[in-house]
Specification:
Layout (H helix, E strand, L loop, with lengths): L1 H14 L3 H9 L3 H9 L12 H11 L4 H8 L3 H15 L4 H10 L1
Keywords: DNA-binding, Transcription, Transcription regulation
InterPro entries: Sig_transdc_resp-reg_C-effctor, Tscrpt_reg_LuxR_C, WH-like_DNA-bd_sf
Organism: Actinokineospora soli
């Protein structure tokens, strides 16, 4: 436990204000989300706030797909798709899918 606390403290110091949102996002991951992250390259481009999986889901939202459609396409549960979309909206500071679609179109 002491070792775990030490590493958390080091991460907090290194990331500053970015630590708490990142830590909360990690804790909120479902089992499917953890697997997706482990199987992806895990690193977003420096100019992209989304992980590769989140970017993929954002593009599917921009194509007009519902969360159920996304779940079917990516062979994940509908709840996992809901969680991904919610996390993306939160990460980008958006409240609607329309805002996300406009953001994807602008990129």
């Amino acid at each position: 436990m002491i070792r775990h606390t030490r590493y958390l403290d080091q991460a907090r110091a290194a990331l500053g204000a970015a630590f708490e949102p990142a830590f909360a996002a990690g804790r909120a991951l479902t089992d499917d989300g953890v697997a997706d992250l482990a199987l992806s390259d895990g690193a977003a481009r420096s100019d992209d706030p989304l992980t590769p999986r989140e970017a993929e889901i954002a593009r599917l939202v921009a194509q007009g797909m519902t969360n159920r459609d996304i779940a079917s396409r990516l062979v994940i549960s509908p709840r996992t798709a809901d969680t991904h979309v919610g996390n993306i909206l939160k990460k980008l500071g958006f409240t609607t899918r329309v805002q996300l679609v406009a953001w994807v179109a602008a990129r």
